[in-house]
Amino acid sequence: RTLQALKDEGFLVVGLSEKAKVSLFEFKENMPIVIVIGSENKGISLITQKYCDYLLKIPLVGKITSLNASVAAGICISHLTR
Predict the structure, then answer these.
(1) Pairs from 23-32 (Cβ < 8 Å, separation ≥ 24)
(2) pLDDT per position as a tens digit, 50-80
(3) What is the pLDDT of residues 26-46, one digit of tens each?
(4) Is 12 helix (H, G, I), strand (E, B) or coil?
(5) Distance set, CA 73 to CA 8, 40, 53, 67 (Å)
(6) Secondary structure element (H or E) that encloses residue 47, with its range
(7) Residues 31, 68: contact at Cβ < 8 Å?
(8) pLDDT 10s digits, 17-27
């Protein structure tokens, strides 16, 4: 309900997912944003993903497929607030 209420107030809901097709660094929207970070084991639930306007990934090189939730949040916030 909270995500829908925020969308109704004009926020864009963005979720971070290692399975997303759009890179965080390609994302160019310029409006108030809500960032959804999933749990470290399961990520964002399918129900929550349906409320996201965009699912974004942080591209990684090498064997690592995902980041600690707080690290991913820091990278995302740092990039989106530039």
Answers:
(1) 23/56, 23/57, 23/58, 23/59, 24/56, 24/57, 24/58, 24/59, 24/75, 24/76, 24/79, 24/80, 25/59, 25/79, 27/54, 27/56, 27/80, 29/54
(2) 999 999 999 998 888 778 899 999 999 999 9
(3) 999 889 999 999 888 888 999
(4) strand
(5) 24, 12, 17, 9
(6) helix 46-51
(7) no
(8) 988 999 999 99
Q: Is-above-0.90 flag for pTM?
A: no
Cα(54)–Cα(59) distance, integer angstroms: 15
Amino acid at 48: T
Amino acid at 4: Q
Amino acid at 24: L
Place of tokens 């809500």: 34
